[in-house]
Amino acid sequence: MARPSPGVERAIAVLDFLAAHPGEGFTLSELARRLELNKATAHALLATLTDAGYLLRHPTRMTFQLGPSLIALGAAAHGQFEAADFAREEMRSLSDELGLECLATTAVGDEMLIVSRAGPPRSLNSVQPGQRLPLTPPLGSVFMAWSDEDAIERWLARAPVEDAEQYRAGLESTRRRGYAVGLEADPRATLGQALRGLADDDRARVLVDQLIDELGHQEYILTSIDRQGRYLVNHLVAPVFGPDADVVLALSLFGFGGAITGKQVETYGERLLDATRNVTKSIHGREP
Q1: Based on the number of CB atoms within 10 Å of its own CB, is 76 exposed (0-12), middle (13-18) or buried (19 or more)?
Q2: What value does the mean pLDDT take over residues 218-229?
């Protein structure tokens, strides 16, 4: 595999950081400090991105924000990633009908990228479009459930060996049911706060890793549902399949606001599956 270009990595870091802080401006010194860049390197990088229109510099405050050239890039990307386009109407319908927040996520390498959201945030710790989450157990089970064994092994390798059996059971229940159920856990609220600050400093990144590890030691992916039981559900997530039967997008429901019965979990899950199957059909995808 070719070695990544440091210059490209720095440019991506700048754009990702600003995307995670929409509407905010940052000076050269602030960006250099937050992204741990040499000031001279940061100056040259920001000047190049500004000249290309990818950044805008305020004439008096000397702060940088995302620029207009990214609008054209975003429009072109949405045209190529048709799953997200077709998902938007289904997401709005889900949110309006169920009174829940709906997120669309895709996998990019070892991360998950939030690409779209419908409905108002149901939590102060809601993640935003453009944010990235680590594709690390127990997160990302819906992307891994229909993957090949090599991909699953790489995913499991990012977590303690003693938790592998629990995670495999979660993948099996996701395949069998068609969707995953994520339960509330003590570290979950703190994880949301850390994700909101992920782009800000390294302490947030370390905290995210620690909290994900803690999630793995609790029942996080619900493997079996008692219809008479009650569950504190954090989210439900179901896959959208592409033409090659791979998971190209995941739609998630958030904001349940308290314990719900197993029967309600199944009702929400079936409604979510209706939506993801409609998107799969719209993009000429096929289920495995």
Answers
A1: exposed
A2: 83
pLDDT per residue over 130-167, tens digit each?
777 888 888 899 999 999 999 999 999 988 888 899 89
How many whole angstroms separate alpha carbon 54 and alpha carbon 219?
43
39-51 helix and 6-19 helix, angle to the nearest 10 degrees: 70
Phi-psi region of 134 (alpha: psi -120 to 50; beta: other; left: phi over 0): beta
- Distance, in Å, from the CA atom of 175 to the CA atom of 167, rounded to the nearest integer, reads 13
Statement: residue 189 has pLDDT above 50: no
